[in-house]
Amino acid sequence: MNMNDAIAVLAALFLAPLIGGLVAGLDRKVTARLQGRYGPPILQPFYDVLKLFGKEKMIVNYWQIVCAYMYLVANILTVVLLALQSDLLLIFFVLAVGGVFLVIGALAAESPYSQIGAQRELIQMLTYEPLLILVFVGIYLETGSFKISEIIATYHEPLLISLPLLFVVMGYALVIKLKKSPFDIATSHHAHQEIVKGVLTEYSGPYLGIIEISHWFETVFLLGLCALFWHTSFLWMAVLVVATYFGEVLVDNVCARLTWRWMLPHAWTGGLIMSFANYFWIFEKIK
Amino acid sequence: MKRLINTSRVKSPWLIHFDCGSCNGCDIEVLACLTPVYDIERFGILNVGNPKHADILVVTGTVNHRNKKALKNVYDQMPEPKVVVAVGACGTTGGIFREAYNVVGGVDKIIPVDAYVSGCAAKPEAIIDGVVIALGKLAEKGKKVDQGIFERLENTQNFIKSR
Lengths: 287, 163
Known about the structure:
The complex is a heterodimer of chains A (287) and B (163). With 287 residues, chain A is mostly helical. Helix content of chain A is 74%, strand content 0%. In chain A, helix 3 (63-83) packs antiparallel against helix 4 (88-108), helix 5 packs antiparallel against helix 8 (164-177) and helix 5 packs parallel to helix 11 (260-286). The termini of chain A are far apart. The chains are: A mainly alpha (287), B alpha/beta (163).
């Protein structure tokens, strides 16, 4: 491992949670402003997590502890692999493992809310994972590699220009993964929800704090994926990431929550049609 | 670190609202605190639906024989440190229903209450004041939770030794 890799890993480990927490704080502030409220301080997510670490440990099943930690480890690993410019497919599988452990932890408790939340989380994973794979395949078709370092080294124009529809498809996946309306079916950031807190119902105290930190890592990872779509210029990368996240917050506030019966067919048909349209475009260009 | 966690406790209280047989007058006022006019999320207060995530239990209405178990159950599910705010004339004392055959009385008959908010219905400003008083107590309780088990048991140990 050379020096640059070490720096990248350290940045992923220590900078990512800071950025993720700040993004979460900004998210809450912007959401409040969109709703005509003043909103909490930007550092509020850090206060929340510190408070959660100070709470009493309450668990229903010991597997919840294992699952909370595995979810954290998997999410840290995705960010580290992204920082090391590793293989997109490998990152994708690690992401899936993390998601599965969150669900297993929720299923380990007997609460009906947690169980329903877990089932819904599985359906959400079923929805976004094919879409993410389609996006990665599109990146491969365009650049000839799944490896991020090779993409950056060999491909010298923004991916967004040749893969605009796939970026929209990734937007779908992003809404689901960031737990935003209309797809915040399993659990939601907003307090009120019909199944209490869904998949997070039975995680409490420090373990909820761990999951919150994992979610910060997840946010950084997803924004990193967005950044990949404009890897040539740092300024435009930042603009793209900020615009995408603001778009997500806007969608979150404009939309009502929908059922999975709506989510699955619409995300799949929309995602598949747009992906294949983009693939045809790539093939036309190659010819 | 302990001091940081305790500051965070005061800055991020998540409250759960339990309607214990209220006429909904106080409930409307509790929910009014969330609206843009009062916006309690400014202070990091979130209205959560899950007792396992909550720090403050806000109870409105009288306690009767049917729902006292539910109230106790919700209270027991909350992890320490936790505080309870009784809201409205009914929540604090039983109100005009005090003498009714099915009514146990105020919330403090069943669980320990840390702050009382009077009024029928209680004003949103008064509820926020009550929550702020409860936050002071939350910080004190937090210090006790942060103490190790031996520090907490010190008094008992001394007592046993002196006997």
